[in-house]
Amino acid sequence: MKKTVDRFSILCLLFILAFHVALASDDIMVTNLFLEKARNGDASAQMELGNIYFFGNENFKVNYSLASYWFRKAAENGSPVAWFNLGICYEQGLGLEKNIFEAMKCYEKASEAGVPQASYNMAISYLNGIYDDEKKVLTLEPSPSKGIEMLNKLSAEEFPLAMYKLAEIYLNGKYIEQNTEKAFALFSMSANLGNTDAMCALADLYHAGKGCEKNEEKKIEWLKLSAGKGNINAISKLAFCYEHGDGLPVDKNQAFELYSLASKNGDSMAQLKLGEAYLHGTFVPQNVETARSLFLNASKNGNHYAIFNLATMALEGIGEEKNEAKAAKLFLEAAKRGNSHAQYNIACLYFEGTGIPADKEAAFYWFKQAASKNDEKAQRRLALCLLQGNGTKENFSEGIKWLKLAASNGDLPAEQLIKEFNLTD
Question: Looking only at Cα atoms, what is the longest distance across the chain?
Answer without folding.
Answer: 92
